[in-house]
Specification:
Elements: E1 5-7, E2 15-16, H1 19-29, E3 47-51, E4 56-60, H2 63-76, E5 81-88, E6 99-105, E7 119-121, E8 135-138, E9 144-147, E10 162-163, E11 177-180
Parallel strand pairs: 3-6
Antiparallel strand pairs: 1-2, 1-7, 3-4, 5-6, 5-8, 7-11, 8-10, 9-11
The structure holds calcium ion (CA).
């Protein structure tokens, strides 16, 4: 079985495993919503930030809260986190259905070329994100390539910089894994 997240050899030899963390999120997602005493408490959507540098996943009730928690933890660890890509459950980058962001350290900028692949992330099913992404944004010169299966095999999309509706290229609610370059 392959690792859920690994660097391409040309980038570095490090290998990281996020399966256990991702699995632990499944229980968090299933928790009942708190009483809607604040506007932001009205959603049960999951918003998680996968931090490559710290090898941790941070989740919160909103995308901004998840990013803020990740940034605070990163600052404590002496690193700056920057977003490389964000997957949205809904089209048009609407965060209301849930988001999953992948962040690297502050010095990271993707190379202009698509080869080598800089990050490969499989098993979106373990994170509750298989066949779910409907729009995607990328940052820091990164692009994303979606794979139909959860194991970076089968059909794959073109490289995407940003797309408000993945359905326009036949990839709505379809990705099971992805690569960043
Ligand atoms: Ca969706």
């Amino acid at each position: 079985m392959s690792e859920p997240l690994h660097h391409a050899p040309a980038t570095s030899g490090r290998t990281r495993s996020l399966t256990a963390i991702a699995l632990s999120l499944l229980t968090a997602v299933g928790l009942p919503a708190l009483a809607p005493t604040a506007a932001q408490a009205a959603t049960t959507a999951d918003h998680c930030v996968v931090n490559l540098t710290r090898d941790e996943v941070t989740c919160a009730a909103t995308q901004s809260a998840a990013l803020a928690l990740d940034e605070a933890a990163s600052a404590e660890a002496g690193v700056q986190s920057v977003t490389l890509i964000t997957l949205y459950d809904r089209t048009n980058y609407d965060p209301a259905g849930g988001t999953r962001s992948f962040v690297g350290d502050g010095s990271h900028t993707c190379s202009a070329a698509y080869s080598p692949v800089e990050f490969s992330v499989d098993r979106l099913d373990a994170a509750g994100w298989n066949n779910r992404a409907s729009s995607v944004r990328t940052y820091r010169s990164c692009d994303i390539r979606l794979w139909d299966s959860v194991s970076l095999s089968g059909a794959s999309s073109t490289w995407i910089d940003a797309l408000a509706n993945l359905g326009t290229i036949g990839w709505n609610n379809r990705a099971g894994s992805y690569q960043i370059s």
